[in-house]
Write the structure tokens for this entry.
Amino acid sequence: MLLLVDTGSHVKTLHIFGATGSIGSSTLAVVTKNKNLFSLETVTANSNAEKLAQIAIEYKAKHAVIADEKQFDVLKKALSGTNITYAAGRAAIKEAASRPADMMMAAITGIAGLPSVYEYLKQGKRLLLANKESMVTAGDLMKRRARESGAEIIPVDSEHNGVFQCFEEQNRDKVSRIILTASGGPFYETPANELQNVTVEQALKHPNWSMGAKISVDSATMMNKALEVIEAAYLFDLPPAQVDVLVHRQSIIHALVEYNDGSLLAHMGMPDMQTAIAHAMAYPARLNEGGKRIDITALAKLTLVPPDTLRFPSVKLAYHALGQGSEACIALNAANEAAVGAFLQKTLSFQAITRTVEKTLEKADNHAICSPDEVLDYHHHYEKKAQEIWKSF
Ligand code: NDP
């Protein structure tokens, strides 16, 4: 097996798409701790040009791209006097993904991450996949492109990274199931009648993880786990019946893999994304420094229970979408992105998010989808459907 990080004899080049976000920051922290092993090629952001320029300068990136064209002048000014090249616009983000690099951290939020992820896979290198929405909406297309180019897709989502670490490929036919754990989010103990009045500020306060706004809301509705069930089924080529979810409030066990012989392998770690990121960047080697370590003797109690799908029906919707096909998975994701956006803008209630997804899913068809452009077309179609649906509530 190829040893990618071999004590620093060859510095690996890295793109970070979504460098200004939560995963972007954790990735930069891992780079800082392992400076002699990684060097930055391209960093991107949506609109935070000042922060993007700061990162590019501090980490000596070669290229910086901002998606929002209105921020081009800010980026240009902030990078003047450096030899960092820069560009703006969605096309420039996609174009940057074709610049050579040994690895790309895919950490843009939502479907917006798909074009660059798909473009980068052409290089036949290593994709560090945090952007779950691309796998949810274009899993088959991404895997086909990776097979054709020889690219590796290493999951960064902590649960999938945990499964990846416990999954014995040579014993694939002896895996009885994988289990993704869910923290349950900030409202898992909130009585059903109080969910009605949940505010954006409360939804953004995750009990264990510090994350971007969209995924924090997804965790609160447990739609994050729904997306992860779909992501896992594609990533590990498993039928939905072999992907389970258990609620584990402590977020110490991230995933389990159960084998026919009765062995149950668990991946544990602190709720710190640097652990999964460090693993994915170094695999199959290990870095000397990554995330925080567990004090195993200080763990009082670890609990694992089936999810309450009555109050949090999102996970059930994932199995429904997987059973129906890729168009339904796109519909689920599109409705969720639109509804979460509206909730964050305070124009939709918390409980209406899941209801919108459920109703949009009822309208999903099952056409064959052959390209990322078609994925995006269907995404926009189902976003509009979702808006029509919540207006009728
Ligand atoms: P953040 O919101 O913190 O960061 C998102 C990043 O993407 C920012 O750099 C943002 O730029 C950029 N971005 C947002 N929208 C666009 C767009 N339309 N075009 C180009 N760039 C864009 O998100 P997270 O880091 O929390 O999450 C990123 C991805 O990783 C998501 O898919 C999430 O589900 C996944 N993930 C996150 C985890 C976490 O712990 N945070 C854990 C597991 C998976 P700007 O700053 O300018 O807005």
Residues 18-24, 45-48, 67, 93, 107-109, 112, 130-133, 157, 209, 211-213, 215, 273 surround NDP (CB under 6 Å). Confidence is low (pLDDT under 50) at residues 1-8.
